[in-house]
Design goal:
The protein is an alpha+beta fold and 60 residues long. 27% of the residues lie in helices and 47% in strands. It is built from 1 helix and 4 strands, in the order E-E-E-E-H. A 4-stranded antiparallel beta sheet has the order 1-2-3-4.
């Protein structure tokens, strides 16, 4: 985990190029997907839908 991460951030998974970060804010739970030079910010519902999408790929 990077040394500059805030107390409200929790790294769930990380590779050399990618990371999934759980972010707790006062208005809810969010997930940041760091994909190289791009960061995607997702609500909890969007993140769950994204995980379902990835699981579908794994089944094929």
């Amino acid at each position: 985990m990077p040394a500059d991460s805030a107390d409200n951030e929790k790294y769930l998974a990380e590779t050399e190029s990618f990371a999934v970060i759980e972010v707790r804010e006062t208005d809810g739970l969010y997930f940041d997907l760091e994909l190289g030079m791009v960061t995607v910010h997702l609500t909890e519902d969007e993140y769950e839908e994204f995980i379902d999408l990835v699981k579908q790929l794994k089944l094929k």
